[in-house]
Amino acid sequence: MKKILLFALLVLAAGQTFAAEPVSARQNVFKQYKKDVGAMGKMAKGDVAYNKDEFARLASHLDELAQQPWQYFTPGTAAGKTAKETDAKPEIWSKPADWQKAVDTHKAETAKLKQVAATGDLSAIKAQFGAVQKTCKACHDAFRKD
């Protein structure tokens, strides 16, 4: 119980810190993405043993993360407009409909991955994991500097 309370307090404190600095907040979420996607990718490729429960946990966490970073792409946080360096392209703000479509597609595919991961069907998981990766690449190609 103490661990749960401590975790909740840390999350609350982190949320307050991130609210003050949106670039850092979204970068932190994407660092978590990288960790989860990397671990899932190793299982999907066979680099490490597939663990149904662990993959499902990671997919569920990724689905939670998929709801978070977009709120931190606030006006005034484009590249060159803040002291903090960012890889975000100005197209996020100049093409908001395209940006929203990319975000919505990504959220839908991560939700599907969570559902498919719960089945334990590795071939279906690999296919859906690939679909999620495609949404990441599409968004990076359009809205992120290399």
Q: What does this entry show, briefly?
A:
The protein contains 6 helices and no strands. The chain is mainly alpha-helical and 146 residues long.
Q: What is the CATH superfamily? A: Cytochrome c/b562
Count of β-strands: 0
Structural class: mainly alpha
Number of helices: 6
CATH class: Mainly Alpha
Record the SSE blueprint.
Elements: H1 2-20, H2 22-45, H3 52-65, H4 91-94, H5 96-119, H6 122-143
Describe what you observe in this structure.
The protein is mainly alpha-helical. It has one domain: Cytochrome c/b562 (Four Helix Bundle (Hemerythrin (Met), subunit A)), CATH 1.20.120. It is built from six helices and no strands. It is elongated and about 45 Å long. The N and C termini lie far apart (44 Å). 22% of the residues are buried.
Properties at a glance:
single chain; 146 residues; mainly alpha; Four Helix Bundle (Hemerythrin (Met), subunit A); 73% helix
